[in-house]
Amino acid sequence: MTDRFAFDEFNKAGMFSASRGAPVALVLGITALLGACGTVGNFAPTQNVAVVDKTNPDARVNISSLSGVISANPRDPVAYNTRGAAYARQGQYGDAVRDFTQAVTLDPRYAAAYTNRALAYRQTGKDDAAMGDFTQAITADANYSPAYIGRANLLRTKGDTNQALADLSRAIAINPEAAEAFHARGLVYQRLGQHQNAIRDFDAAIDRDPFVAAPYTARGQSLIEVGRYDKAVEDFNASLNVNNNNADAWAARGLALERQGNTRDALESYQRAQSISQDNKVARDGVARLSRSNRLF
Fold first, then answer.
1. What's the pTM value of the predicted model, to 2 decimals?
2. Which keywords fit this entry according to its UniProt record (predicted)?
3. What pLDDT sits at residue 29?
4. How many CB atoms lie within 10 A of CB 221?
């Protein structure tokens, strides 16, 4: 029986845009937002919609300063969008939505603010509202690639892979250097079982930003599916060099090693994954399987 994976979103792929022209910024290597992942196979989905930094002592000061800017410029949509982004990074999504709403009220063609509000809605489980805002952002600016990426990730979780692929191909045409767009499209190809296409897209994502863990993990998962276990282990090692606390990467590494016949190191990887997440099914099944096997000898 073939082990399968839930292919997660880019863990560090994007942030709320704090300016009119900046992409909303599904930009690799910085903290924050992308859509919640769907489930494909045995890995439980993780809710990597936002990485919230509530420990930053400057954040409250920053929000206070931005409130002063808004008091001085109450008709400036950029000021509301900027403060909304600051609220979102603190996990204050209700406040963020109110500010993004004010931004688009002042400027109904403000694509970044619509996309930011969509991302905040995704964090609070309001996927229908998020879909509407991603589409509204695209209507406001047909060349705003982050809105296509955000909508595609949401479409993928709903199983609409054809439209997701269309959105991501459009995002790549707009910005061929958008590593997160290639990663997101690779995830769609994985969902379709088109692992060679997925590997090519993950290659492109890694070429554009080699310092993010998620594309290595995802590519390793596809490499397992096509039987390239040595290369898969290399990718999981690379992923873990960036983020050593990723249960999915440890579990997948265990599976690749087990497929190679290296059961001792495989068991260690499965156990490491379990120490991080007791809910990791691939790790739990691997430990049980290898423990039974060892008891036979």
1. 0.82
2. Membrane, Repeat, TPR repeat, Transmembrane, Transmembrane helix
3. 26
4. 31
